[in-house]
Amino acid sequence: MGRWVFAALVCAAALVFVPTPAAAQYLDPGASSVIVQIIIAGLIGVAAVLRLYWGRLKAFFASRRKPPAGAPSDQQDR
Amino acid sequence: MPGRVASSFRDPSGHVYDIGGRVFRTVRAPGRDDFEFVRSTGFLEGKVRSGQVLEAHLVPNELLGDVAPDACYVLEHPRLEFVSHPYEWSFWGLRAAALLTLELHRDALRHGISMSDASAYNVQFDGPNPVLIDYLSFRRYQDGELWAGHRQFCEQLLYPLLLTAYTGVPFNAMLRSHLSGIGASDLLALLPVLHRLSPRFLLHVGLPARLSRTRSRSTATTAEQLSHTKLPKTALLRILEAMHSWVGALRPHRRRTAWQTYADLNSYSEGERGEKARFVAEFVAASRPRTLWDLGCNTGDYSKVALEAGAGRVIGFETDQGALDAAFLRAEREKLRFLPLYQELLNPSPDQGWRQEERKGLQSRAQADAVLMLALIHHLAIANNVPLAEVVDWATSLAPAGVIEFVPKEDPMAAALLALRPDIFPDYTREAFLAALGERADLTSVREITGTGRLLVAYRRP
Could you confirm whether domain B262-460 is CATH 3.40.50.1980? Predict the structure, then answer.
């Protein structure tokens, strides 16, 4: 889960335009390619967040349904 | 530039030189720090051992003399026996090159290294195995850097594969005329609507196509902002991994082609096929070619025979995509040093690119030690009207020795070519063939191998 939280945080950061010195490169990546990569990074971030909350939601319902460990079952009562 | 390989001019980090039959790569000042860093990680040594990157070792700068006075380092690569171009590769070859590029980039990132490009032209083949030849593609990873080669990867590798996978149209002709690759808009226009709807297609093809139409309206400010955009490493790795699984799942969309079942549908009997294989094996055993060209290699039956008889490597040429696919997969499966390439022999790859020197044509790369031209002569001389003597002249110009199979008009395969047209080939005879070949080379062995008069002739130029 920690991995996903980390991924969510760093990918969300990708949506922010941060000025950095451009790395030495001879190839023009093309504006469309840069935009595509930003969008993908954003989507990965959104997916990670959704996964995180989906996991929490499942855990929440699972904890409500499951009897606490060690509690006697209905069968044993009879 | 004297000695500099004509295609080596884009990256200022270094250049490739071909001097006295040896291949050198210089590292210039703009690439020095990156080269030293990459070297210090030991990453490339591991990739050379696994065969994914071409071997190179440092040599004294003086070896290049005055040719490259600006070199900080000089590397020497082993000479490639044959340089092939992406537009000559089979679908499976291009796919293998794409997967290699992605795997190297992914593995490099784990060593703090990135790749500055993703050119298909940086990949060459040893048999069916792709190998990256450009050491200077590897740079120190800068925190937050983008995948600089994304567009190049898409246009030179992904889009051609998608074209063939989704429409069945071979990418070769389009890639041959667009050396920088197929544009997103062109690909989009060619694909069925159904394929345009998947999310990854929308992202990597639909969106770039759309943006390329509106790019002219974007302001300089937007471009400036984009140039400073950061991409987290985890996101970059995920993009590479997702691309790898997409490319890995692609298959050519093809119906059965005319020639891929040739081995089962030809006019030979089992015994005659064996006789032909024996003849080829004897020729190869006697001439021991290091590189042999198999013209019209089909699925590679006789390329395999030649390799087993002692040929160092075989480069096959074939037009039929189904046969080409089968040949490449066979070479992979049976671990043959056999590279089948798409080549229309009536219109072979030309010298092209910058100054028409950047990508050499087939004739300029003809350095084979021997050629096989089996069951091809009637397709050139009858189906395509090339005068018989010219076919012989061309075949004997490619290598100093070879085997040519003459298919007489009486043979069912040649007769089929004449079934619907008048016979305008009075000079297409066994005697004329032998005379034309005899004028250009010594005939070292002549054998009739079928009841229909098919003739195998081994020759050597004086």
Answer: no
